[in-house]
Design brief:
It comes from Candidatus Roizmanbacteria bacterium CG09_land_8_20_14_0_10_41_9. It is built from eight helices and seven strands. It is an alpha/beta fold.
Length: 207
């Protein structure tokens, strides 16, 4: 890489910082960009430069969107009585593959992870509680779909306890469920196929 021109070398260095990209792949991608037609490269650069300004979080579920309310929350065909709580937007996308779920979502944008200094207040748990309190009796079920690893389980338990407290204080009747273990321990929803997710939804249990 030391023989690369500085501008090409900087692009390769940046690409190497992306998840799953090693030095050789970063070098190949840098040369791929170099050989793109200038029009395509400018179009790509335009999308990247506008990413932070155009993309925002849905006011309701915190999904990524270019509007105030995402397409899922604004879809009249979705069952607004069921809310599935996921860690990341990529987990939501996994559920949307294969048409296996017709409810709505709440995206935490993380999970409780003390070792990495991520506390409950660092993710969007309070937004979920505020949402449930606001919607009150329209909520019939909340599915806790955090990943089945140590941090995901801790996050689910924390949210469950907070929801139970809210139910008691407001005299609400919604159920709290956890995904059935069609998913192996330590798995990530992002990489699960839609049939596995279908079984996990079908076999969810009281929590």
């Amino acid at each position: 890489m030391s023989n690369f021109p500085p501008s090409l070398r900087q692009i390769a260095f940046f690409l190497e910082r992306l998840p799953g990209i090693g030095e050789k792949t970063a070098n190949r991608l840098a040369f791929f960009f170099l050989h793109l037609p200038e029009r395509d490269l400018k179009e790509f650069a335009s999308y990247v430069s506008q990413l932070k300004t155009k993309i925002k979080l849905c006011h309701i579920c915190l999904n990524v969107t270019e509007k105030d309310v995402c397409d899922i929350c604004s879809d009249p065909k979705r069952d607004k009585h069921i809310i599935t709580v996921v860690e990341e937007v990529l987990d939501l996308i996994s559920f949307e593959t294969g048409d296996i779920y017709q409810g709505v979502y709440h995206v935490l944008h993380g999970k409780i992870d003390p070792l990495n200094h991520i506390a409950p207040e660092d993710i969007h748990i309070d937004d979920l509680l505020d949402r449930v309190e606001k919607e009150k009796k329209s909520v019939r079920e909340i599915i806790l779909a955090t990943n089945p690893d140590m941090e995901g389980e801790a996050t689910a338990m924390f949210i469950r306890n907070k929801l139970k407290e809210l139910k008691k204080n407001l005299k609400l009747t919604f159920s709290i469920t956890r995904l059935g273990y069609g998913l192996p321990i330590g798995a990530n929803l992002e990489y699960a196929d839609y049939m596995t997710l279908r079984k996990a939804i079908e076999n969810r249990n009281k929590y």
